[in-house]
């Protein structure tokens, strides 16, 4: 009787378990390049985990510093494995502190939770890793950040910010919009790994 109960229990466990279907960052990067993304791409409907199988994200992990237009930037990137709810992704998250020439902090997200993070990674686009950035959303400050570690110098990274052009501006929450200066430069900035 015990063996029949054991076999029945094991059978029910096997049936109830949903197999994890793993896709890679490389597969999703390749899919983005195709006109017909379903052709030759992984079965996107069944993917449960997008994995960094080649550890490409590791090159970004750490503290990076740089200066641009009289501001000092310190960006902390960390890798999270299997992050998400329905589909889990390996991603890079970023927090930063920005200081002016006098050393006064003008922006600090180092203590923010993962839900209110500055940078949220997506995937690779050629050699660059694309992340979404939200700063002062009331002043339409959000967009994509492209980070790329130099092949010949893994301690040097370029960062480029492409600000979203669409959005609803609420003048009550951003009264100085006409003179508002985004936190990140829209020109390439060089960061050095610490």
TrEMBL record:
Residues annotated as signal peptide: 1-19
PROSITE patterns in the record: PROKAR_LIPOPROTEIN (PS51257)
UniProtKB keywords: Signal
Pfam family, one: DUF6705
Superkingdom, taxonomy of origin: Bacteria
All copies of domain DUF6705, residue ranges: 1-143
Record-given protein name: DUF6705 domain-containing protein
């Amino acid at each position: 009787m015990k063996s029949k109960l054991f076999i029945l229990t094991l059978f029910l466990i096997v049936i109830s378990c949903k197999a994890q279907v793993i896709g890679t960052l490389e597969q999703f990067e390749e899919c983005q390049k195709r006109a017909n993304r379903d052709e030759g791409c992984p079965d996107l409907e069944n993917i449960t985990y997008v994995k960094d199988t080649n550890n490409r994200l590791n090159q970004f992990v750490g503290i990076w510093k740089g200066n641009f237009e009289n501001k000092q930037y310190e960006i902390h990137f960390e890798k999270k494995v299997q992050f998400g709810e329905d589909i889990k992704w390996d991603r890079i998250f970023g927090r930063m502190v920005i200081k002016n020439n006098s050393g006064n902090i003008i922006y600090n997200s180092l203590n923010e939770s993962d839900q209110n993070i500055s940078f949220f990674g997506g995937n690779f686009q050629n050699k660059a890793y694309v992340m979404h950035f939200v700063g002062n959303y009331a002043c339409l400050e959000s967009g994509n950040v492209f980070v790329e570690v130099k092949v010949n110098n893994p301690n040097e990274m370029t960062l480029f910010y492409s600000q979203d052009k669409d959005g609803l501006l609420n003048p009550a929450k951003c009264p100085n919009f006409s003179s508002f200066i985004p936190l990140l430069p829209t020109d390439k900035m060089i960061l050095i790994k610490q």
